Amino acid sequence: MKKRILLLKVLAASACCLLVLSPVQLLAQADSVNLTVAEQSKKGLNLGALPAVAFDSDIGFQYGLLANLFQYGDGTVYPDYRWSLYAEWSRTTKGSGINQIFFDSKYLLPHQIRVTADFSFLTEQALDFYGFNGYESIYNQSFTDEEDPGYITRVFYRHERKLARITLDFQQKIGDLPLRWAAGYGFFDSRIGTVNIDKLNKGRDEEDLLPEVEGLYDKYVRWGLIPAEEADGGSHNFLKAGLVYDTRDNEPNPNRGIWSEMVIMTAPRFLGNSETAYTKLALTHRQYLTL
How far apart are the first and last CA of the chain? Predict the structure, then answer.
């Protein structure tokens, strides 16, 4: 029986609506560019709340709610907001779940120091795991295709993970330049293991049961590619610092401009990373062009 997936995930936007625009409406939007900021601006609190619904034949039916709260104040900073708070709570019938709160504000701290915070706890019963080396890793589709003679299990490239994540980031503009400094702290606690086949098989018909066989994660542990002391996960604290070059004309929906970042992240031993100390440099460049 082939895996059947029905996915419907509704994402909240600041306006909390989806519009189908006619040519007349598009022209009206074009004319609205000439309106004053006061006529276009939003004020006070704006709330968008929508359901998150999905179905996966392995992890079950997902149900939950996501909401986005925006505070525009008196409207003088529109289209910016004073602060934004995003929250999501969802579960699946097989035990996966999302618990997340995300906060962002340019005006909470003095001198327009932007603060962004994320507090999340994610439980994933069948998270993708394709090995190491990213795009260079080997993927054999026949291992997960029930109609292929080489079939092993649909969850061959999966593993279980529970992740607690806390991040706190700051940014501030440097003078009149389109440049910002960035700094932040993060804490990740990850608990991983093999897929819980018994839990995923609960309530299934016999012909749909997942076989009790090794997945790629189990093989990596047995082969020693994942050391025994890391096989059940771990935690680490990290610091980051960098520069952001930003010339976007509209932050949430750019039509033109550049958004580039250079960030150094380090998880030093003095922060308790005795087994997982590392330092890495990340360079990201995004350029927006109107088609």
Answer: 43
CA distance 134 to 125: 21
Strand order across the beta sheet in which 233-246 lies: 5-9, 45-56, 60-71, 83-92, 97-105, 114-128, 158-173, 179-193, 233-246, 257-267, 278-288
- Mean pLDDT throughout 193-215? 88
Whole-structure pTM value: 0.75
CA distances from 80 to 43, 67, 204, 262, 277 (A): 11, 18, 49, 24, 38
- Going from the C-alpha of 206 to that of each of 6, 148, 150, 153, 211, the distances in angstroms are 22, 19, 20, 14, 11
Residue type, 227: P
The total of structural domains in the chain comes to: 1
pLDDT tens track for 31-80:
444 444 445 678 889 999 999 898 887 888 899 999 999 999 888 888 88
Closest among 206, 120, 146, 116 to 3, alpha carbons compared? 146
pLDDT, residue 11, reads 35
User: What separation in angstroms does the CA of 211 have from each of 140, 144, 152, 203, 215?
Assistant: 18, 11, 8, 15, 10
In one-letter notation, the amino acid at residue 116 is T
Task: Give the residues across from 52 on adjacent strands.
Answer: 9
Range of the domain at 65: 5-288
DSSP-derived 3-state class of residue 144: helix
